[in-house]
Specification:
Elements lengths: L1 E6 L3 E4 L18 E4 L3 H14 L11 E7 L3 H8 L5 H13 L3 E8 L2 E9 L11 E8 L3 H10 L2
Antiparallel strand pairs: 1-4, 2-3, 4-5, 5-6, 6-7
Amino acid sequence: MKQIMPHRGINVFCCIFGTKGIMGPMSQYEIEIKTLLGEQANADALKERLKELDPACKETSRNKQLNHYFHGGDLHKLFEITKDLFGDDAKKKFEHIAEKGSKFSVRTRQKDDTVLLVVKASVDEGTSSNAVSRMEFEEPVDVSLDELDQFVEKAG
């Protein structure tokens, strides 16, 4: 997999979660509206506008993220290379995605001090970014972002 671009910015999103999914009760359905705001002033203005529309609206968490996006590669090979970084449940979920998913996207993420591997794959005719049926894997790893990037690059 080849890294296509690091991404820094301020993101705001809204999610709605369910309890049933293709992979059983641990799965979630998600509706996400996301926008890259660019700078803090834009984020502050959006938060104020949301509070005007709904006074009960409040910030529930805050973090900084650095995402590295990758293109191409072999998802099965990525699973084999990284499987020892995960516990049994996460390993089973990733293996299921590698076996059943079709079009996929991979990114590495540093969220504050936590490094994560993120894999999204479609299970219908859509893409990994907009499929109606999409599987997602987002798990922390105990290696640096640079080390995780190297594992991903080894997968093709």
